[in-house]
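Collaborator request, handled under Task 6.
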Amino acid sequence: MNAETGQPLLTVEHLSMRFGGLFAVNDLSFAANRREITAIIGPNGAGKTTVFNCLTGFYKPTVGRLTLSPPSGARFLLERIDGFRIAKEAGVARTFQNIRLFAGMSVLENLMVAQHNRLMRASVYSLAGLLGLAGYRAAERRALDLARHWLDRMGLLAQADQTAGSLPYGLQRRLEIARAMCTEPAMLCLDEPAAGLNPRESQELSRLLLDIRGEFGIGILLIEHDMSVVMQISDHLVVLDHGALIAQGPPARVSNDPAVIRAYLGTEEDEALPPEVAGDLVAVPHSIPSAGQPPC
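Structure tokens returned to the collaborator:
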């Protein structure tokens, strides 16, 4: 095991987000480790996306501390940072439940835009770019190489010059992850990346996220309703219901927690779980079926 595995990347302490008299998130605490995939799950309306919005600066929490501790040794209190600086300075990248690509730009241009801040610094805010100085040209080549690298990893190199909006839905999902990775994040936040994907595309997504975790060693925070994806790839689960934490821990333990079963299925604590629905909450090993096997 890598020495960094098990070390907290994100620590959430007593997070609450209130809208008028309604608590969308109420006194939530959990940790997400480096080099691990942490999934935040729960029924619709549980507060999952609100947590993401607090982490990425769309909302300022009513109460709570959100500490990001990347391997660089820096320490960021996300609740105190302006939203636009969280991605730029703290290295938190995000995708959305509803795809938010620049549909009229090319696939390649979408990945270059993701590196805008880095290129602007290299250009001394346009001066070096206008003069064509060597430092800016080198930064531009690096940005282009990084964009092409991720297009290749996502199987999108042949579509580099197509408009992003013309891609099939599944490829747009992959492009959105590629754009996030072009920011070279310390933490990748994925909001329902398997939404709308067919079973084959979901399996490919699972392989991709495991590869990203293994190769780049970043922490991944995941919101997902597809339990086959969640159980196959997650190291740690955080389960919410009505804005409150009801369980957390390894998938095998959480999947058998009576509070989790009640939240998802409405069963009584002492009521047996019907076998035809139990499979959705049964943990499976961290492996992905081969192409010839049916998904778990």
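The cover message to the collaborator said: "The chain is about 35% helix and 20% strand. The mean pLDDT is 84. Please let us know whether this matches your experimental observations."
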